[in-house]
Amino acid sequence: MNRITQKLQEDKKILSIYFSAGYPNLNDTVQIIQDLEKNGVDLIEIGLPFSDPLADGPTIQASSTQALHNGMTTQILFDQLKNIRESVKIPLIIMGYFNPMLQYGVEAFCKKCAEIGIDGLIIPDLPVDVYADEYKAIFEKYGLINVFLITPQTSDERIRFIDSVSNGFIYMVSSASVTGSQSGFGNTQETYFERIAEMNLKNPQIVGFGISNKETFNQATKYAKGAIIGSAFIKYLSESGSGKIEEFVGEIR
Amino acid sequence: MSFNVNEKGYYGEFGGAYIPEMLYPNVEELRQKYLSIMDEPDFKAEFNQLLKDYVGRPSPLYFAKRLSEKYNTKVYLKREDLNHTGAHKVNNTIGQILLAKRLGKKRIIAETGAGQHGVATATVCALMGIECIVYMGEIDIARQAPNVARMKMLGAEVRPALSGSRTLKDATNEAIRDWINNPVDTHYIIGSAIGPHPYPDMVTRFQSIISEEIKWQLKEKEGRENPDYVVACIGGGSNAAGTYYHFLHEPEVGIIAVEAAGKGVDSGHSAATSKLGKVGVIHGCKTLLMQTPDGQITEPYSISAGLDYPGVGPLHAHLAQSGRGEFFSVTDDDAMNAGLQLTKLEGIIPAIESAHAFAVLDQKKFKPEDIVVISLSGRGDKDLDNYIDYFKL
Description:
The complex is a heterodimer. By secondary structure, chain A is an alpha/beta fold.
């Protein structure tokens, strides 16, 4: 069974952390993953940096740009992760934009992920329709879970379609925004979280965008299976360095 | 071979809608409605009336006598530079603002490179009394100051794009982010034949008035609708798409596309996408794209802000790959000289973007009886400082 599916069956709220690979320093990637696992994080999204990250706000974009300046490439990331499964057991997802994958070759990319022990992918600019038509078979061949986003504007009909194509979890974008631009949730989010919970989807949902601390984590996971922290963690890394991950994770739960 | 978009939004292998889910409702609404709205009689009537009385169409098809003599062929200029706001861009912004109104949108965003699309968008927003925000690269704000001033005077807010190369590509990123953050009340007026389907087709259709007019104007002047060649400069490719549109399926009409070579195609400072690009995804569409082997988008270079873009519209990628279009690249120097030559021979100062198209006359030998229609997509007022600096005038 895929590690993501297994993890989602545990009776707990999932804490997922996103960070940009190669940030703050090129070779921090493996250490950050190991520290996150050691401190009780359930799932990690490893960001493959891209020059033009459309769905990301300034914090993640700046960390991507820095990672690229540090020399990060798709191949270097794969090399860094080569032996990751010797030390890390929790599910690992690579999150990145479609163009670098297209250049690596979608099948070659998936094959490499499977060899390393990556469990899934999140590709915000690969729409579910194109995935279902052109790439689903390749992902399945390599046992990779592909995660799709929904937003407060996504229609019920489309959510049902996304649910039918998904086989891990649904990435529930908390509000209409790019990453890192919200602070706290209001009634709109509450209504949206309830609406999705009532749909009884076959895939659990993990909330992302706007989760930055214990309070927002708890609000988000009141209805959903888990929550993802990205920009807030990157901000923490840039201010405190990669040495104090324990402190950051400890404050969330 | 077809050069129209197919039902999935592709020209050959190029196009599609590679967008984050956050943009799906907006783009899908447009996809479902753009053709039917454009087909409504009252939409057509309002669009055509504004093009006539506000923009000043039809734009003249002018026989350039002295230029023709110099190159020993028959050169016609399609005078998009005479449109209100000084370029072809307004054809599209008029169309999209009318569409946005019918979609009930209250707020307009746009990206701009040279500032022509920003001015054209700010203009139609002033005309309709709608809030307007224009994203523009910080570098372009510096090199296109007159257009920035125009946009502000027209009531638009100009927001600088501070990331990446701080040019058109980054302005487009920022506009897309704004749309993600404002998904309900906002329409994004893309200015070029780029972006997710249906944008390339929608922009092309609004710009196709250019080739529609060329056909009947040439019939009046030469007794035939089809020239031997149509020539246009390409950044994202909206004036080119409009200039080619009614000739795409007329094989006797040669289609010539002129890209910015910057300091030379192989200099590392260029925007000649058809020569330097590979298939990739940028701003929501699959097209030819300048990028590193690792798939990071390369920062392009051209003296002309409007051509300083690392991709081309998917229609143009298809024209390049299929061989239907003949692609040339023109350096900064050749473009500037072609601009000065047009000024001296015909008394017309072209935008530096458009000047690139004229430099093709030095690269390709046309026959004396050939009719060559060149799209003079914009006027050079905005570029006076650049011309003055370059030629030490």
